[in-house]
Amino acid sequence: MKNLIKKYIVDYVREYEKRYDISTTWREPLVGFADANHKDISRIREYTFEEHLMPSDILDDPTIIIAYFVPFTKDIAHSNIDGELASEKWTLTYQETNEMFIKLNDYLIKKIEEMGCCAAVCNVASDFKTDILKSKWSHRHMAKIAGLGTFGINNMLITKEGCCGRYFTIVTNLQVSPDKPLEEENCLYKRNKSCLVCVKRCFSGALNANNYDRFKCYETCMKSFDKYEKLYGNREVEKGKPRGGSQVCGKCVVNLPCSFKQP
Ligand code: B12
Ligand code: SF4
Ligand code: SF4
Predict the structure, then answer these.
(1) Does a structural domain hold residue 77?
(2) Which residues partner with 26 through β-bridges?
(3) Is the CB of 247 under 6 A from ligand 3?
(4) Which of 263, 111, 126, 242 is nearest to 187 (CA)?
(5) Does 189 fall in a domain?
(6) CB distance 89 to ligand 1 below 6 Å
(7) Is the pTM of this model over 0.90?
(8) What is the pLDDT of residues 132-168, one digit of tens each?
(9) Angle ∠(67,73,186) on CA atoms, nearest 5
């Protein structure tokens, strides 16, 4: 059943990128299965904050949380190396990936229901409280427990296909064996105190070896939002152009030893 679900996700992304109205292509998604009752999920409020939702807030009797990672292609990453604002392509990829997530999740939920089980997504996962800049649902926490990766100094979850891409999670009551969190660190600095290329790439100073300042980062992401909102905000949707502004930057995700592989 796990292989079938992986196949649904991989095939869906392959088919989706053939759509005439989008420009983004992705590398092959990775899929992991987290134990919804894992101790580090039961204790998630201690790790994050007191309003974080529990899997049982999303679905009755949750057993497995499916986590998937959709890695970006190298040309998307390369477009975002230079400059202090997110590239047009990076912004559009963010937006087209969000649009795909909605459709892919609906498809997966339908497929899981056809198997006689139930599934649901947290529909506030993309929202965050602007006073603390935290969401009530952490995709990365779930993906970590699902064994997809480990956290880097850049604050991204680094998989065997790198960290340049996006995550989503679906809570289910599937009866399959859960995957285990990885034991070895994927980040070079965490492994042997070397690297820190991501810190050098963060021109705003939001990132250093010991800390990530989400407020400074948010301010920087808002600069790209403002630029593309001004340029494209009031225009009809046009293929290959951002649909307005998005809070993105991502300079600390590209041109790194961990962008596309486990370093
Ligand atoms: C709010 C938000 C932002 C805010 C605040 C940033 C932040 N890092 O929180 C802003 C707008 C600034 C932002 C910026 C960016 N974001 Co953002 N963002 C989110 C969002 C919506 C919520 C994150 C959140 O608040 N989670 C709640 C907090 C409490 O948890 P967390 O940070 O996810 O996980 C922490 C805990 O689990 C904790 N932890 C502590 N103890 C323990 C113990 C254990 C055992 C475990 C497992 C974990 C754990 O460690 C984790 C890291 O700090 C998520 C989507 C989502 N819902 O998950 C995307 C998300 C985190 N963003 C993402 C990205 C890509 C970006 C940007 C690169 C922007 C861009 N696309 O160009 C930058 C990168 C900034 C950075 N270096 O972190 C991706 C990350 C992908 C990846 N490879 O990891 C996500 C997951 C979106 C997605 N759907 O893929 N983001
Ligand atoms: S660039 Fe280096 S230090 Fe930064 S997250 Fe990747 S491996 Fe870790
Ligand atoms: S997204 Fe930009 S501002 Fe935020 S940590 Fe990464 S490089 Fe720095």
Answers:
(1) yes
(2) 72
(3) no
(4) 263
(5) yes
(6) no
(7) yes
(8) 999 999 999 999 999 999 999 999 999 999 999 999 9
(9) 55
